[in-house]
């Protein structure tokens, strides 16, 4: 059992605490906001291996030394830099430190840290206790040993780790997500399709495959020459705007922020809310399907080794 500290008891921090507790770690969850601490504790439930505190300094001495710390405070560079700098001064160089930023650069985050070689970005996805992938991103000062240790810790906890070789804004997953979203908003604004049609088409055309086959393997299946021919005539016609779409500006200005304000691209009535809850309930089944491919591949490899007498 390792001792971990999660900084920030919001959406991500609470799910991260739940995830690492489930994996048998001892977890302290830190938040200066009493209401956030109470809400997180209520969601997680009582456990001897779990504690909350307003600051890391307020933890009882029995909670040190700590093996790893994950920062999940709001996405503001100055705040994160200050929190990470303070953590690096409080904990010795053997404590691994990570940030769960959605896309800030690791080099900027680590600027005020002592021993920045033990720091990396571990970008989890919401809900962090369910979605398997984590992007692991090095800062320029991150040591290869730190990347290995984080990868091993996350893998042991059941995560699928994607190790990046460069520190770039948005990492990989958010870059892909925004590239697709830019085209979606362009098509909505042009009146080519409505929001519901676009969501349905994406789910049934791309989504059903994407959980099982990534976009690169899919190109091999479809034929790279075909993809190349389409790319030649299609790229000049794709959205290439460098500022957010007008429809996003308008929704934000009108306070139509989605589920949290009951109005976004959809109206969040009881039916819509039930649908979102059904989707959340089905996620584990989709993840199990995605993992099944790998389990079968591992079984194949094992049978091959047995057949060769290894
Ligand atoms: N929400 C998502 O879908 C998502 C997904 C991936 C990554 N992230 C990233 O995770 C981080 C947290 O996001 P969130 O959605 O959980 O935010 P959130 O607003 O739900 O929670 C942030 C929490 O941090 C607390 N906090 C503020 N200052 C603090 C401090 N000095 N020390 C300790 N706690 C402090 C706040 O009180 C709040 O409870 C952000 O960097 C975000 O970009 C979010």
UniProtKB/TrEMBL annotation:
The keyword Cytoplasm applies. Residues 6-45, 63-164 form the 3-hydroxyacyl-CoA dehydrogenase NAD binding domain. GO terms for biological process: fatty acid metabolic process. Its EC number is 1.1.1.45. GO terms for cellular component: cytoplasm. Residues 170-268 form the 3-hydroxyacyl-CoA dehydrogenase C-terminal domain. It is found in: Cytoplasm. The keyword Glycoprotein does not apply. NAD(+) binds at residues 8-13, 31, 75, 80, 102, 126, 260. Keywords: Cytoplasm, NAD, Oxidoreductase, Phosphoprotein. It is an enzyme of class 1 (oxidoreductase). GO terms for molecular function: L-gulonate 3-dehydrogenase activity; NAD+ binding. InterPro entries: 3-OHacyl-CoA_DH, 3-OHacyl-CoA_DH_NAD-bd, 3HC_DH_C, 6-PGluconate_DH-like_C_sf, 6PGD_dom2, NAD(P)-bd_dom_sf. Signal peptide: none annotated. Pfam families: 3HCDH, 3HCDH_N. The record marks 123 as: Important for catalytic activity. PANTHER family: 3-HYDROXYACYL-COA DEHYDROGENASE FAMILY PROTEIN, LAMBDA-CRYSTALLIN HOMOLOG. Homodimer. Belongs to the 3-hydroxyacyl-CoA dehydrogenase family. This is L-gulonate 3-dehydrogenase. It comes from Thioclava dalianensis. The lineage of its organism: Bacteria, Pseudomonadati, Pseudomonadota, Alphaproteobacteria, Rhodobacterales.
